[in-house]
Every structure is written in C-alpha cells, then in structure tokens.
Amino acid sequence: MERMLADRMGRVSSSPTMRVLVEAEKLRQRGIDVVEFGAGEPDFDTPEHIKAAGHAAMDQGFTKYTPAAGTLEVRHAIAAHYASLYGVEYGASEVIVTAGGKQALYNAAMALFAEGDEVITHAPGWPTIPEQIKLADASPVIVRTYPEQGFEITADPFLDAITPVTRGIVINSPCNPTGAMIAEHELLRIIDAVADKNIWIVLDLCYEQLIYDPVPHNLPKLLAARMRDRTVLTGSASKSYAMTGWRCGWAVGPAPVIAACNAIQSHSTSNVTSISQKAVIAALTGPQEVVGQMLAEYRRRRDALIGWLTTDPRIRCHVPAGAFYLFVDISALLSPDGLRTSDEFAHALLNEAHVALTGGEAFDAPGYLRISYATSMERLREGAERIHAFVRALDAAGKTPSALRA
Ligand SMILES: Cc1ncc(COP(=O)(O)O)c(C=O)c1O
User: Fold this and answer.
1) Residue 4, CB-side half-sphere exposure with 13 Å CA sphere
2) Residue 93's pLDDT band (cuts 50, 70, 90)
C-alpha cells in the first residue's frame, strides 16, 4: 500500500487528555450535564489586570508581528521573574517566548535530541513529554516513581538508566499527574552524575507557582551553579495565571540552544500572539497575590475532595504537594467481572455517571484516575457523589471484587 503519512506518525499518539475533552463535549452537545474533572486548566478567569493589558495592546494597535522569540520587553520580564523566584540571571538572548510550555518543550526536544539519542523521563508523567522526544526521532527511556514513596521523583532510577547514548533528562516538578516533586538533594545527585557528561537537563516548571507547602525547590539555582550550559528551564503562564487560552510559555537556557529554538519557531509558528505577550508582561510584573489566592482555593478543594472520595476506603488518594490533580488509586474497584482497567472505568464513568476524568493509562499508570480539581467546590462535591453512586451500582451488580466490597 502506498504510504500516506510520514513514518514518525506511526510512533506518535494523540493527546489522551484532549480525547476526554472531546468525548465530554459530545455528551454536552446532547444536553447532558457533565462534571468536568478532565481538563488540566484552571477554572478561574484570567485576572482583570492581565485581561486589561490584552485589551490595551489591541486598542494601541499592538497587533503586528513581533520578533519570533518575543519582544525584548517580555523576555526581560521573564528573565526578571526567574531572577526574583530563584536568584538566577539570564539575558534576553537566553529567553524565548513560546505558545505555552508545550511549545517550549517541543522546541527544546527538536533542538537537542536526535535519532540514536536516549532521553530519560519519569512516569507516571505527562504524556506529551515522551511523544515529543519521539517526534525528535530520539528514544524516550521511562523510569518509574512509586506510590509507596508518594511518587516522589528520585535520582536512583535516572542514574541506573544512564547509558553512553543518553543525551537528555526531562523532569517535571511538580509533576502532572501525581503532584509530586523532586527534592533538591535528589536533583543534586543527578547533577553530580551528569555534570561532566554531554547530557542536558530540561526542567519543566509549569506548575512551579502551585506548590502548597513551602519546601526547598530552587532547582534552577542548583542547575545554574553546576551545569548552566546544559540546562533548559521551561515554564508557562497557563496554570499560575489562569491563562491557558492565551498560549504563552517560555524556555530559558544558554544562548545557542535558545537561538536554535528560535530558528525552529521562526519557521513554524513565529511569534506568540502579540496581545498575549503584553498580557503576560502584566501577569509577571503585576500584583502576584492572585496566584496565592488561587493556590489557597486549590488547597481547600484538594482537601475537601480527598475527604469526600475516601469515605470509600477502596478509593485511595495520595495528597499532592503541587499542581491541581488528584491521582487516585482505584485498583481495588477493578475486576475481571466488571470494569477491568482504569480506562474502562473512566469511560463507563463518563457515559453512565457523566463525570469526565482521565484513566491512569494515559499517564503510564494503570489502576489510577486523574482528577483535575481546578473546578468549583460545588462541582467537586457533585462529581464525588456521582462517583460514589457509580461504585454503589457496580457493587450491586456484582462487578467489584466482592471481598473488598464496602
Ligand atoms: C506537565 C506539563 N507541562 C507543560 C504543560 C504545558 O501547558 P501550556 O502549553 O498550556 O503552557 C502542561 C499542560 O498541561 C503540563 O501538564
């Protein structure tokens, strides 16, 4: 048969979290009230002063191309943000503004990785990371984090996975979907092992401002001190400032790699929307209390939701240290006589109880569900009630492991 698509498409799959959004939308179009726990985005509106900056940009005719890497003003604002958060210094030529953290990671993968390279990342994790590594024709090597250790990202599995062809390590902390982080001393052990090798560390900090309890997490400073010339930091306005739709993120790293990202971006998407660039300046340089207010609300929701769900002991929750996802172990509800996998569970839950969430398979963690609690308290309670009613119906139909029936 004649080839239709490029070979690389055989290696890459579409975003499973986006698929849930599409399925839920189909139900909604039929007039069904779906409780939305699938979307990885804040329910909060973009703060007013940020929107005002977007409006002003339009009113002032700031609606033309900008340099592909972003205006000097926004790149300075990002550099200043990192200086104030972490005490690391970067110049404008070391910053590129991207269409979300996603494009920052994509550009970095394309700029750094190639066929024959191995790139180590952790699972359960955000599915885009290994797919991007594959798009760059490199091979993702997946190391595990474990529920018994709260899914904490630790050095040993990375150190064990390093081979002569390892070219990069991608770490996401706090992590989607587990909310777990890497401790500074663990990152230091990785740095010790790779600092004198030709290995890059790409650090996805997209949830960096959504950490519930203050713990030392100055990963950029540790990297800058020992391997600044082989570190790329990626970040985003999406989650911290409720700006998902504005599509604004960034990569920060040595000038040659940022120049390479710029070359890739200038031939693909060009600059991030000029209006979004102005809005993100307002986000980064304006009042930061909004971030703390949203974080406080996420914490209230996290704690309430865990309380509601765990009234059934077969639903096991690990308390996330950051981000806004609950990664729930439902393996005790799966059964050969009923729902066999967490994907099947998620699918049935959507179609029968109208709660949209993502099965753990999407994150390389069968037996789990990811619940995004970036939604109102009222909807969280409604969703938790629907989940309990759904499980009671499974019990009544003899579809859960009977020995453990609540
Ligand atoms: C771990 C992680 N990194 C990066 C992103 C990118 O988000 P955005 O492209 O909206 O900045 C996401 C979004 O879900 C994420 O979960």
Assistant:
1) 2
2) very high
